[in-house]
Amino acid sequence: MDKERLICRLSKAKRENIHMIESLRRGKGEILYADEENVLLYDPGCRLCMISAKNREMGQKLLLLIPKDTVLFVTSQSFLNELICSGFSCEVYHECVQVCYPQRQSLPVRHKDIRLLGPEDAEYVITHYHMGEPEYIRERIQSRAMYGAFVEGELKGFVGSHDEGSMGMLFVEDSCRERGIGASLEAYNINRICERGFTPYAHIIVGNDVSLSLQRKLGLYASSGTIWWLGKKE
Fold first, then answer.
1. How far apart are CA 91 and CA 88, in angstroms?
2. E-strand stretches of 44-145
3. What letter does residue 131 receive in the DSSP assignment?
4. Which terminus of the chain faces fewer neighbouring Cβ atoms within 10 Å, N or C?
5. pLDDT tens readout for residues 15-55
């Protein structure tokens, strides 16, 4: 199945498949297998496989096609987690709801001092964001994928996009919360992604109701099901 046909097929359940759709649309995901019910994509830049299978038997067949250097996995069915954990010495990191912003109109940004972050801001982000290695954060900044909110000239929060395409890394200092800065940061990021012709999307860890509520207030739509992130054991 070619890319355009696969995107069309996945778009029938856009909220559930937005991660795969955007991986293909942004030219990151390579199709290792695709038919009407099963998909295996590989993003060589992230060494990430995205996998969706009709049943366990098909999941086992798809696992044989996964590149040996893969270090991250996103699964669409829970039965795949056991197969991947045992076959690749992995563990489940997070179960997530997917949210996406399919509209094209710009969102209002209340906080006006939001800027692209530079190398000089890396230590601030590293100090306050604890779900990524310092090298990864520096790479995200170098890739012009992170923005900061400044209050009276001082950096007080940030947001970014991960290397596979999802939005994340949202942080605002306690002293500056309840001012709409978090919403402004995400709206600003959404607007920049839309300007590039892509669909903004994010993965919200199940149970993080505060974040999910923010997404809905901004106009993002949530998937009815969940996906799982898995990675190699350290």
1. 9
2. 48-52, 72-75, 90-100, 114-116
3. S
4. C
5. 999 999 999 999 999 999 999 999 999 999 999 999 999 99
